[in-house]
Amino acid sequence: MTTLLIVEDELKTGICLKQGLEEAGYEVTLVNDGRQGLEHILQQHYDLIILDVMLPSLEGWEILQQMRMARHEEPVLFLTAKDNVSDKIKGLDLGADDYLLKPFDFAELLARVRTLLRRNRVLSSVMYEVADLVMDVPRRSVTRSGRKIHLSSKEFVLLELLLQRQGEILPRNLISSLVWNINFECDTNVIDVAIRRLRSKIDDDYSPKLIHTVRGIGYVLEIREE
């Protein structure tokens, strides 16, 4: 059975979420303390984590940062009352997969849960190779020059998109739509932050550089003569 972890300190919200998701067929664990939530994450595997930002003892930001540092790449859906771009950028930079603002409609939350689970389970027989970069999709593995590169689930999807459309210039709004299923405002730098984080892992210490900026448009993955 698909397992979900909810870390939510608002008791009524947590109980309603747990009941609704269990009725939808999921096995759900609910905790209302940030530190307890992190302990659950580090001790066992969940298919999806629903994480509040403001929590007692340990905030959602810190939980996400520590789980990613510990190589836990489960998809994370943030629940937050904070509706500003800087918070979205912060969460994406730490490795969040999606956001839902409070108050929310349960039907929308359920749809987002299903989408994240579906994306995380998609396995294909595709293997991509560009220069010395190799992505093995079924094994969720990425290497460069034979060295394993650890990516978050969202970084993996972003790199897979760039590899799928190698040589094609991808506008920022298209990337945000296909990877995050969110239409970011054109004057935000959410996609730039995500690309910079990905570059730091697959390009900074290697040559040739693979991800290139197309000024005023977006990004492209290709081998260019240096």
Gross morphology is elongated
* Beginning-to-end CA distance, first to last residue: 50 Å
The secondary-structure element order is: EHEHEHEHEHEEEEHEHHEE
Helix and strand composition category: alpha/beta
Find the CATH topology of the largest domain. Answer: Rossmann fold
What is the arithmetic mean of pLDDT?
86
Low-confidence stretches: none
Beta strands, count: 12
Give, in spatial order, the strands making up the sheet with the most strands: 2-1-3-4-5
Number of domains: 2
Can you tell me the CATH architecture of the largest domain? 3-Layer(aba) Sandwich
In CATH, the homologous superfamily of the largest domain goes by the name Response regulator
Radius of gyration: 18 Å
Describe the structure.
The protein has 226 residues and is an alpha/beta fold. It folds into two domains: 3-121, Response regulator (Rossmann fold); 127-221, Arc Repressor Mutant, subunit A (Orthogonal Bundle), CATH 1.10.10. 41% of the residues lie in helices and 21% in strands. It has eight helices and twelve strands. It has a five-stranded parallel β-sheet with strand order 2-1-3-4-5, with helices on both faces. α2 (34-43) runs parallel beside α3 and α4 (85-94) packs parallel to α8. It is elongated, with a radius of gyration of 18 Å. The protein starts with a strand and ends in a 5-residue tail after the last strand.
